[in-house]
């Protein structure tokens, strides 16, 4: 029997008394270890037990090939994601790191070195430090200063140098550093100001391709001579474009890269794979036949193959080209899903990649190129659940308020519809809105969506409103600056669409989102409280001016490029008009706000100020904060508690048949 039958609304009300609206001064703050909460009721044991299996699903992400032909992966067996090694298909996962904090930025050293680099912060503060793990001695060495923010590690092809990004110089700009791994001495190679990262070393290790990132639609490439320190910027056709995944060809004569620059003067909607030979001027577009973004690129060390991944309506498609003729080679059939990391084996004969599908968490697969054979190297657990009963979403497109070429613009959304719905029974709905705002929701595995659909009988809609990546350059820019609330209107249009679906209950709609998605929740409640029953805001922006003033200095200008500059009076006026904080009186639906105390992106003050403002207007607000988390919840115990509290919130404020 499903949980929605076990826990009737009446029984739930008896087990846990509802929370009534209280002014902020009357609310008691409770502390349990690193957890702080306000107004949270008891969570029923039945709910915790049923949730447990879904919360014990796990995935595996690719870290790279080790020298002996094993794979380094990141996966969680206890509280956090740690580094593991797997040496054969479905082989034992040998855990290598054992920290309370999660590890990331996993990268194996090429050539003669026997080890890997990883990043780790403290309590989610994102001031990552880089470490070297020696596989022979099992010793770990700190590579960075222990204080600054360091990420994007990149090995030279001979494994003797490590490039990475760091804020060490002044705490504001992200420079590129290069470390001699024999001496462990780093030096700066790019100090131009802004946010820079390294893309690839030349085959001889004497040059370094770098990129300055400004926004999702603007970046600038260049090359550094590591002997002289000279930085040469490459021209950008059209003056401004999104350019990434710069790679040297293995003979060093050409560069491969992904760009949406104009071609022959014609603007391009999508980012294509290109090849350019600076000496001869030869230029080729290698993915002209793919009307979608290319969003990943890998080159084999032997120079014989290139792999690219295109993002086609949220689905990853892998293609492998034989070099130098760029002929597409046959591949085995892959599971349909989202493709993560892609890396050739040291001998160039195999490709490792991670694949995440709507009904299975991320796992690592290997393709043998010669026989075109696929083997699965990890099989991640799904909590003992029957994976065949997981719900696969369908892709729908709904009309919104504006028009394109005389027709209504449509917004894509993934729709998780519960199976075995009783005839005539309307389903409550949770709308889940991604962050970014330049991110993209994809049909990847979500234990939360599966629990809502299978156990609570809730339909889940995951839209990619305007401003999302993956749908072209024009679509990406439709919510910029003063057009910010146009993306909120896309949620209003989704509410209209829900009302037209006979199986969905337009009187029981909830909204959920994190980071920028948290702002979207608050703004949707501000505009549509009469049509949205409840909302969950996770690490969300409540006022763009206070957010931009208080976010960490190294990312402030990056966010101004997307949202607008609060120092400009006209933009400040827009922020004041659209701010949920300044319009808190319009939020008339129950609200749950969750936050990490150490969040460097959206400071915890954004959560506390909206909680107080909404509560002071007489509306009920639940509040949850973890002192050992940052921009989201990485530790399993914290994530599990938040997940249970969220389900408890939906049971009380969304699933019941009574009105608000």
From TrEMBL:
Gene3D superfamilies according to UniProt: alpha/beta hydrolase, TolB, C-terminal domain
One Pfam family it belongs to: Peptidase_S9
Superkingdom of source: Bacteria
Residue ranges annotated for the Peptidase S9 prolyl oligopeptidase catalytic domain, each copy included: 443-654
Keyword annotations of the record: Hydrolase, Protease, Serine protease, Signal
GO terms for MF: hydrolase activity
First and last residue of the signal peptide: 1-21
SUPFAM superfamilies: alpha/beta-Hydrolases, Tricorn protease N-terminal domain
The keyword ATP-binding appears for this protein: no
Protein name: Alpha/beta fold hydrolase
Lineage: Bacteria, Pseudomonadati, Pseudomonadota, Gammaproteobacteria, Lysobacterales
